[in-house]
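Deliverable D4.2, example record:
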Amino acid sequence: MEGCLYGIASNISSDLVWGVINQLRYPCCFNNFVKELAKEEDNLVVTRKNVEDRITHAKKQTRKTAEVVVKWLEEVNIDIDNVNQLLEEARVKTSCCFGHCPNWVWRYHLGKKLANKKGDVEKRIEEGKQYIQLERVATLPSRIT
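Output generated by the structure prediction step:
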């Protein structure tokens, strides 16, 4: 009986410790979350540009762009604005104790938002990659004399 209780208490304490460690990563790794989100935002901007180039190329060939692609571009523009707002908020140095220590509660909440937004941006990039045509018909330069 005592061994069974010890096993249950061990499992519960292990889960609690890992849960606490998982939650502590938000304020402790705050700067890493900011850097990673900024990097993913750059990747999203590049993907958006590639999709826009694809749309421009399709228009030159008098092809119509699918509604899904247009909707994706609108959502990406909103996401980029949201990411920029989060990054601006993260760059504001919020501290307590007259600037001597960081505000851990603020860092926790914003770090969690940054981590979640990073996952959303990664999904948008993966969606956008399917709208980019990898190969195009090569055109030969014309001779104008």
